[in-house]
Amino acid sequence: MSFLSISRLEKYVLRESVLPFILGFSLVTFLFVIDFLFDYLDLLLTKGVPPLVVLELFLLALGWITALSFPCGVLVAALMTFGRLAQDNEITAMRGLGVNMARVLRGPLIAGAVMGIGLGLFNNYVLPETNHRFANLTYSIHRKSPAARIEPGVFIQDFENYSLLVKEIDDKSGEMTDVTIYDYTEKKSPTTILAQKGQMKYIDGGATLRLDLYDGEVHAVPGEATENKYRRLAFDQQTLFLHNAGAVLKRQDRRSRGEREMNIPAMEAAIAKLVTQKEEKITRIKDKLKTAGVDDPNGYWNAAHPEGSAKVFGAAAALLGKKQKARSDTTADGRRVSEIVQMEEMDLKSIERRIDKYQVEIHKKFSIPAACVVFILLGGPLGIRMRKGGFANMAIAVGFFLLYYLMLIGGEQLADRGLFSPALAMWMPNIVLGAIGIYLTFSITGLGPGRGMR
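Structure (tokenized):
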């Protein structure tokens, strides 16, 4: 068979994968959006955030949602496409024409690699900026005072120079009855405004409350002894604008960035700085050990930390304590040196955990895009063996992705705590699912020990 016919076959398989990819990507994106709403909806409601700001926050959240949903879309596309081809006996026809399944998988694997490279660039250059803007916006929202809530029968004093009391209010329409307002603008005696009905509405992004009052009176009490005229003014309609500066969303940019807000060069620079701090910290600890009478601080430190780190918390301080006890060194200076060494080890462990977090994020920027290839190896052969192309395969794909996601999150937490290697933690999901995928690929291509399976 000519190379041109193979090329057309690969294009056909890729074309058949487009719709399943869109469906899978959309489904997982929807699930992550629901999770996002559960996490942030209460915050957005209680803070009275303007709709446009809510929309901006959602669009920024799509950055990390896309980074996770994209590989799942690839897995769904592989499972549904090859399952449908097997179900319609197209795979059987290809085999009958002498087409090896390895050649059929070649096109999707190349496409998966290209998408993985694109996702890797996105994760390194675009995602850190969207994460940084998302973090800045949520930080500003958290610092924003809640918009004043009008509650019936409760004096509201959140507005400058005004106090407000409403007997009844409809939360949906904003209609009020029996409204009483005390105006302290004159700084003398308050002016009292009474209205039988009213309508409230927040404007200026929640910064101002507009009150339209109907069928009311204004009562002004004399503020000075010379003023003896009591003023009373009736009105059919009057509008007040009550300003609540605390309800304004003030955007604040944080100078520092977390590891998820940095690209790889920035994280490598941060790691280099932390490594320097770590070396300086170890040098200070050894100096303290020498001050405490330890003849060989280097050997002492290596005995406490065989791997050259502070993973075993307080090891050097513990050995020092035993040495002092053996020497009957119970002086205040001896105890103080032991305490200082223990504190230095605490700082050292904190530095190592920060290094681990940066390394986790660096490996994650590569491991998640690499899953695009892993999921082709897994989904393609699995779809052929299942011989189904419907939504059942989509459910299976989502199940595998959830397994991948749980392994990724679990590994990240273990690595952040210094209990697991950052590299192994981030690549373990790919290794496990990739091994399964390679075995399944061998089983359908006749290239491995499972070639006799059907």
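The longest strand covers residues 191-203. The CA atoms of residues 50 and 80 lie 41 Å apart.
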